UniProtKB/TrEMBL annotation:
It catalyses: L-alanine + NAD(+) + H2O = pyruvate + NH4(+) + NADH + H(+). InterPro entries: AlaDH_arch-typ, NAD(P)-bd_dom_sf, ODC_Mu_crystall, ODC_N. The gene is ocd3. Keywords: Lyase, NAD, Nucleotide-binding, Oxidoreductase. Its EC number is 1.4.1.1. The lineage of its organism: Archaea, Methanobacteriati, Methanobacteriota, Stenosarchaea group, Halobacteria. This is Alanine dehydrogenase. It comes from Haloarcula hispanica (strain ATCC 33960 / DSM 4426 / JCM 8911 / NBRC 102182 / NCIMB 2187 / VKM B-1755). One of its GO terms (cellular component) is cytoplasm.
Length: 337
């Protein structure tokens, strides 16, 4: 490998500590969406390594930890690292903390040197939105102008930020049991989009629908959806979670991010475990579509579903953008001794 091609931004034998404020400033969706698409392509082209996500379940705390290592190589760059992330749904009410938090160690593939340790909470939200945008770009109708969002938590914000990069979104319908969260979302985006509160069915009638809830009892039926709605099923990230009724999964063109993860902990994990669906119901992995080994949307009508569990390759691709964008005066530095 040529050092000129794969060189990192700084070679000073110092590890940069990157807080969330620097990540927010460093990550532009216009840069992140194509980087995440490149990560899916690398995974499909076998130039990425990503062991299965491992879990530590803590039912006594209504939460869990996940470890997510990855390495990927594209035509222009390579990157590696590992993310340690938690999901604790009670955090907002009990500790005034986000449900999902994480820390990422970004490393030099050639030497193994830890180039940066960065807060991965904001990073996770950003790359999750970007993954939905990549799927939307390949699976939604070209002129999609309406976006429905079910779940007005922190993940909902990056869904709109990212998807509006790939489709001309004008109107947004947001649905949540918490009226205050809906109002905060409307206040945030009301000057840029036509945003209103709505029911699940009203959100699901939009051209694109993103579901970002932690539910275990499905909330979206086949009847709720429009005739050409593309659904980004983002909320199911552990065994037992399911946002879409099984009939939606069976009837839609189903695209997944990774077979092992989705069958274990994605939107399809429940009907997969009960035998209600099988491999014949899965039409493609997103990476196959990105590189042209499988078709994206082919018809103006028909429902499409993207089952997203979140992949370590996405985190590492996003971390590279953060690291490459940092100046010498960003973050804090630790010198290796």
């Amino acid at each position: 490998m040529s050092n000129s091609l794969y060189s990192t931004a700084r070679q000073d034998n110092q590890t940069t500590i990157v807080p969330s404020t620097d990540i927010e400033a460093a990550v532009e969706m216009a840069d992140l969406v194509p980087a995440i698409e490149a990560a899916f392509a690398a995974y499909e082209n076998d130039t990425a390594q990503m062991p299965p996500k491992s879990y530590i379940d803590l039912p006594q705390h209504n939460g869990d930890f996940r470890s997510m290592p990855a390495y990927l190589e594209t035509d222009d760059w390579e990157a590696s690292g590992i993310k340690w992330v938690n999901v604790h749904p009670d955090n907002p009410d009990e500790f005034d903390l986000p449900t999902v938090m994480g820390t990422l160690v970004y490393t030099d593939p050639e030497s193994g040197f830890p180039l940066a340790v960065m807060d991965a909470t904001t990073l996770t939200m950003k790359r999750t939105g970007a993954a939905a945008a990549v799927a939307t770009d390949h699976l939604a109708v070209e002129d999609a102008s309406s976006l429905g969002i079910i779940g007005a938590g922190v993940q909902s914000y990056t869904q709109l930020e990212a998807i509006s990069q790939v489709r001309p979104i004008e109107s947004v319908v947001v649905s949540d049991l918490d009226d205050d969260r809906v109002q905060r979302f409307i206040d945030t985006f009301g000057d840029e989009f036509d945003v209103r509160a709505g029911t699940i069915s009203e959100a699901a009638q939009c051209d694109v629908l993103s579901t970002v809830t932690p539910v275990e009892d499905p909330i979206v039926t086949l009847e709720d959806l429009g005739e050409h709605t593309h659904v980004n099923a983002m909320g199911a990230d552990a065994e037992g979670k399911q946002e879409l009724h099984t009939e939606v999964i069976r009837e839609a063109t189903l695209v997944i991010d990774d077979f092992e993860q989705t069958t274990h902990s994605g939107e399809i994990n429940v009907p997969w475990s009960t035998g209600e669906i099988d491999e014949s119901d899965i039409d493609a992995e997103l990476g196959e579509i990105v590189v042209g080994n499988a078709p994206g949307r082919e018809d103006l009508s028909g429902i499409t579903v993207f089952d997203s569990t979140g992949l370590a390759i996405q985190d590492i691709a996003a971390a590279r953008i953060v690291y490459e964008s940092l100046g010498d005066d960003s973050g804090y530095r630790l010198e290796m001794v």
